[in-house]
What does this fold into?
Amino acid sequence: MPKKEKKNSLLKILGLILLGLIILGFTIKTFLHGHNVALFNPKGMIAHEQLRLMLLTAGILLAAALPVVAVLYFTAWKYRESNKKAKHEPDSRHGWLLNAVIWLIPGIIAIILSLIMWPATHRLAPQKPIAADAKPMTIQVVSMRWKWLFIYPEQKIATVNYVQLPANIPVQFELTADDAPMSSFWIPNLSGMLYTMTGHSNHLNIIADTLGDYPGRSGEINGAGFAGMQFTARVSTAADFKSWAEGVRMLDTPLDTTTYDTLLKPSENNAQASYSSVEDGLYDTILMKYMNAGGHDHTGHDNAEHGAHHE
Amino acid sequence: MKEFLIGRLTRHALPHEWFTIGGTAAFVLMAVFVIAILTWTKRWRWLWNEWLTSVDPKKIGIMYFLVAGFMLVRGGLDAIMMWLQQAISVDGAHGYLTADHFQQIFTAHGNIMVFFVAMGFIFGLINYIVPLQIGARDLASPFLNTLGFWLYVAGVIMVNLFFVLGGEYAATGWLAIAPLSGIDFSPGVGVDYWIWSLQISGIGTTLGGINFIMTILKMRAPGMTLWKMPMFTWGSLCSMVMAVMVFPLLTATLFLLFFDRYFGAHFFTALGGGDPMMYTNLIWMWGHPEVYILVLPAFGVFAEVVTTFSRKRIASYTSCVLAMIGVSVFALSVWLHHFFTMGAGANVNAFFGVMTMVIAVPTSVLFLVWVATMHKGRIRFDTPMLWFLGFVAVFTIGGLAGVVLAVPPADFQLHNSLFLVAHFHSNVIGGVLFGIFAGITYWFPKITGFKLNERIGRYAFWCWIVGFCMSFIPMYILGFMGATRRLDHYESSTGYQPFYVLMLIGGIIIAIGVALQIVQVIASIIQKKRDTTGDPWDGRTLEWASASAPPFYNFSSIPQVTSRDAFWEMKQQGLPAKKYEDIHMPTNTASGIYIAAFAFLAGFAFVWHINWLVVVSIIGIIAVAIARTFNEHTEYTITAKEVKKIEEDRQAKVSAYRTKDNRPDMGLWEFIMVVLKFFLDAVRSKRWRTR
It folds into this structure.
């Protein structure tokens, strides 16, 4: 094949690839318009930090990898068969310098990333309480088939598939499950996910900074009702939160044993619900159900500190 | 009595839903078709003697390709079904699949693609190529090899059997995480089919791994030290060592889950002292190395392709080998990065994050070695090289996404999202599957004696690339939008739908690519551009020293190796004169088939609680294995005279072919015309009408 023709066909291929990517990019941009790109739309400190870390890592990686990939394609093109001007040294032996370079470059990048990652992992550990002026509050979460039960131990109320939390106040979610496979508690606008498991209490600390409604769901497959197991997280002002909690307490819908047993039965695409009262220590009772039956010798409290165990 | 005879099988287990009826009908039709052709052409005995009972790794390799290719279409169909569901199941419309059925499909898709497509193709390549590359005539244990293959086939049948009996597959995700896979949450037979298809094929993999380690370590041609082995053999060795280390772990884990389900044990249950988190750890201790088991041989393929098509020795053999060994060592210490989100403390998470960064180093080294190899090379862009260039782009995207996922705080946001799914598809499709395609295209002339059609191959390549970008770039974006994997329906307000539609279109383009690959193979058979030299690409390693296709004994005399790139060196110094010697070859055996059949029956009996059949099958396995040890005729000898005759006959046949076949490759249009003409002729021919 004549050389000129080959070069043109290469340009054609490059042009087509570029054109395709541009069209795809614009299509995606159009489709995204007006929708919640949750990971790039953080509404709380943890999600902010997680995004920052993600972008930083990706930036370092791209800065290192893009030139390598570009050089690879350029080399492939430069030493193509039809380019008779390029050198051909079929038996050239590369010395220690090449070996040093190809191990050192990725090695150094791995070290840099590890140095960024190690402290960040500790700083953003989900079980670590968030330091703030305001007094932190606790919300207990029980995943069931296939709904989320939220218990407010301080307000003594409970909700299903709806959680309201005050802005700018650290919230500790205590996560467990009852008679359900592992699920994963995730409000992408506010923070990353954490697993919920029977007999275990995982702690997820967050703080929200912007008012609004944010979608939450399970990240882990847990059976037929998985896709419909969604909830809304409403971030409100502290005052609104207080009056909302008051309002729920005024209702006449206690979460008694019968109601709880009904909740425990598998059901799909559940509506939101609010419960005006909840028995003391319900969360611990749920945890203990799986402790006593198992012959574990440690107490429920020990296990509630599960996260700290690993520290 | 009935319970004793057929366990829990009832009439209800027979197909009665559209997909089980459809699946069963499809299998029955295919079986009838195959049986009809075999009977018509009187090929039953030939099939049994020449193929099914064969211990020739080349024939077993080809059988692996055929089964894995079939399963690729089967698993691809699953992918299209999932994407179709997700493209239309918005708001009130819940698509055309129930949630449970949808979950079964993605579980089956994952199992099929990893165990029966990727593993099948990789084992096929290793079977065919490794003995040739190391200058061996067969494997250390030809019997273990046929046994391993038939156990794999038993697994394939088991994973499809639910269409016919039972009507449900596991709906748990491809790793069947506990306690969802426990008897409480998954009471049906689906998970049991999952357990036994993986168990049986997994034991086959362990046996295969042992066999190939022995073969590579003990049966190399004289002079080929470990440090003179070709890169594909190195990749295979590292991969098989890992397989032997971790597959027993899978076997043990599956047994524990089976005990939970069958005998009511409490290893992984929430109650009764079990610990589901143990299951997650155990399954990923196997599951993470598994992906490297798949990708290392693929890296080996790319190393061969880059050196051959650059016409240059590999830039740094030592670094390349060390990188492969490094990957296989570190692969054993990163499993926890699959569940940073389970709640371990920061130190544990950070440690496994660092290990994951570490494993990215040798992987990057391989890329840099390939760049240096191309430098000052003379590069041809035949389709194997195209697959390599496609691999670089796709695998890099996936690899970078993987390193981002290795940062625990970032992983908390990305885990189990579609970003993660896009990441591992980039690596498995870009790395493993493209590697397999490159390998098959590269070695196709060696295997069949004629080259693959380059022209249609290029069309297929571009379909794969375009389809891949359309499917998986939107998938990364969906991950950013907070879409989790495995959603069978969602609200339109999320804005997911256009992306799912894009993914479906991309999937259809990939399907066209697969169709073109099938066309490519058929067109190549029609045009038959023969390779009379045995060395169509100007290759460097020993497999090119034998004829295309190699005789069943591979080499008439075992080559003497003096350096790396042994065949290249021989070509420089002049090929040695042919000499003939007596050759000992293993005899065919059906024992492997019988053992695999009994293993299959045992698995089936466990699924349906047919206890007498369990006992009978296990006794059967032991009896066949013992009977096999009394067989003293496991080898036969071909005298030098016979070898000479075979070689000369072959030479005479080959010289009748055109030595230089410069016909251009058949295009698509030409292919359609040829096929049309073939059918028209068939219809017109009188012979047909009188029948």
